[in-house]
Design a protein that fits this description.
It holds the Pfam family DUF3159. It comes from Streptacidiphilus cavernicola. InterPro entries: UCP010219. This is DUF3159 domain-containing protein. This protein has 11 helices and no strands. The protein is mainly α. The protein has one domain.
């Protein structure tokens, strides 16, 4: 007699995994956000490699960033990441034109990556992993994972280490190229270390969190606490009736 295969996962667990998957992508900028941040760098390195004109390359990169932001406005999409991209490219272009060194176009974003990596590292060391702080409110568990769900605390810690490794990898490759004044290779590396490793980090984070205990929703926790109080209050009344 044949038996049909059935999933052993509860519906809420499956839904939770899908929510984590979507929330991870959104929390870290989304695919569109990563593309918006990669394209200006590609435009800069392409034009500079061909023309060696720093001003033209900088203004072209800034112009494409503004164009991408305007497309977001037209589509009524969130401007959070688009604004960050415009600001980052503007600072990079200003620094490069001020110093006269094309490699300085990438320096602000490289420094930002190092600072962000240190923030992630500190968050792990103080047991407030940043991935959990970002996803907790999105998944409706807020900070219950830290005090009531040790399995999720461990998972968020591991996932945060994944992003620390990503920032460390980028710094280890980009800074030697910057110090060697290899502008074209620096630009190529910056592009290569954008979306592909980001997708890998997203996948590894999802893999870690998909094996973690389900989140303890704040509403559920409040309902449980509220349910205990009436039960306690009913005991004296029942004792009087007896």
């Amino acid at each position: 007699m044949s038996h049909s295969h059935r999933s052993t996962e509860a519906p809420e667990q499956t839904a939770g995994k899908a929510a984590v998957d979507t929330s991870l992508i959104d929390a870290f900028g989304g695919v569109r956000g990563m593309v918006d941040m990669t394209v200006p760098g590609f435009v800069f390195v392409l034009i500079y490699t061909i023309t060696k004109d720093l001003a033209l390359s900088s203004w072209s990169a800034f112009g494409i960033t503004v164009l991408l932001a305007l497309v977001r406005v037209a589509r009524r999409e969130t401007l959070k990441h688009a604004f960050g991209g415009v600001l980052g490219v503007a600072i990079g272009a200003f620094v490069a034109m001020k110093s006269g060194k094309a490699e300085d176009f990438y320096l602000p974003s490289m420094i930002y990556g190092v600072v962000l990596g240190l923030v992630y590292l500190v968050s792990v060391l103080v047991r407030w992993p940043l991935v959990g702080m970002m996803l907790g409110p999105i998944l409706g568990e807020n900070m219950t994972w830290r005090t009531q769900n040790p399995g999720r605390l461990a998972a968020y810690t591991k996932a945060t280490w994944v992003w620390i490794a990503l920032f460390a990898l980028r710094a280890a490759i980009l800074f030697p190229l910057y110090w060697a004044h290899k502008v074209t290779w620096l630009g190529v590396a910056k592009i290569g270390l954008g979306v592909p490793p980001w997708l890998v980090a997203i996948y590894l984070s999802w893999l870690i969190l998909s094996k973690a205990p389900p989140p303890i929703k704040v509403v559920q926790a409040e309902d449980a606490e509220a349910g205990e109080e009436p039960a306690a209050a009913q005991q004296p009344a029942e004792a009087e009736r007896r």
